[in-house]
TrEMBL record:
Cross-referenced SUPFAM superfamilies: alpha/beta-Hydrolases
Entry protein name: Alpha/beta fold hydrolase
A family per Pfam: Abhydrolase_1
Species in which this protein is naturally found: Amycolatopsis silviterrae
Keyword Kinase: no
The UniProt record lists the keyword Metal-binding: no
Keywords tagged on the record: Hydrolase
GO MF annotation: an example: hydrolase activity
Domain of life, source organism: Bacteria
All residue ranges annotated as the AB hydrolase-1 domain in the record: 24-260
């Protein structure tokens, strides 16, 4: 299915689906500064082949979804928890999308910031979640899931001025935070970067999303109250969200925990069968 723009209760979201519309719906939520195409097309096809009607979308402030307004201050976000919008607002966007698509309940899978959004969605709208899968994410507690200094600096690097600068920077960052024990497909990341640039960059939106992360609350207590089939997947070599974040998430949810040896802050093709298999097993409980 090609991309479509949906008006969802006051916000415009770009959405795409894969698979049989009669299959159980599965919503994919992507992370910081990342459009929906970072859920690789082939990964989405394989999820659809596993028995899901797969939905991916651009969060607000990225790609072809609505770009927000308001100036983000990262110090204010961290120390005063002040930001133009919250992770809860992003979670509500996901709910509005499901409403617009006529979906009452879905399997929800989020990665990185998308995992935080998925957690917030389950906290706010538990009746709409069939299962919850949180990948390479954390609880919002400030003593777990911390990035390495190099990874943190890479996230705060000045924005590129040209298409080629963006491609070069994204490939370099992907190599830095990615899975060093798996082959690095530079052509794949270069093509992803080119496609991302061509769909539209929103540097101010990246800072607003980052402010939403930095201003977020500790979700641990609320996650403990969730009684949903849950799975947490995390790489043991993640430099951007330390594996302690995944462990804390799994403890809070009482979830199954799958620690993937050598995986960094990405989903190498080699681990797709493991990830898709885990999501499918969770859904068939």
């Amino acid at each position: 299915m090609t991309e479509q723009t949906i008006e969802a209760d006051g916000i415009t979201l770009c959405h795409e689906s894969f698979g049989d519309p009669s299959a159980p719906p599965l919503l994919l939520v992507m992370g910081l500064a990342a459009p929906m195409i970072w859920w690789d097309d082939e990964f989405c096809v394989q999820l659809a082949e596993a028995g899901f009607h797969v939905h991916r979308f651009d969060n607000r402030d990225v790609g072809r979804s609505q770009w927000w307004t308001g100036r983000a201050s990262l110090p204010l976000a961290y120390f005063l928890r002040s930001s133009p919008y919250s992770l809860g607002d992003l979670a509500d966007d996901a709910g509005k999308l499901l409403d617009a698509l006529g979906i009452e309940r879905a399997h929800v899978v989020g990665t990185s910031m998308g995992g935080m959004i998925a957690q917030e969605f389950a906290i706010r709208h538990p009746q709409r979640v069939r299962t919850l899968t949180s990948i390479m994410s954390t609880t919002g507690a400030r003593n777990v899931g911390l990035p390495s200094p190099r990874a943190a600096l890479a996230m705060l690097a000045p924005g590129p001025r040209t298409r080629e600068d963006y491609v070069t920077q994204l490939v370099r960052t992907s190599r830095l935070i990615g899975s060093r024990e798996y082959p690095f497909d530079e052509d794949h990341f270069r093509q992803r970067a080119e496609r991302t640039y061509d769909r539209g960059l929103n540097p101010a939106g990246v800072f607003r999303q980052l402010a939403a992360i930095l201003s977020s609350r500790d979700r641990t207590a609320d996650l403990r109250r969730i009684s949903l089939p849950s799975l947490v997947i995390h790489g043991t070599a993640d430099p951007l969200v330390h594996v302690s974040g995944g462990r804390a998430t799994a403890r809070a949810l009482g979830a199954d925990l799958d620690l993937v040896p050598g995986m960094g802050h990405d989903l190498p093709r080699e681990v797709w069968p493991r990830v898709i298999g885990g999501i499918k097993r969770l859904a068939t409980r």
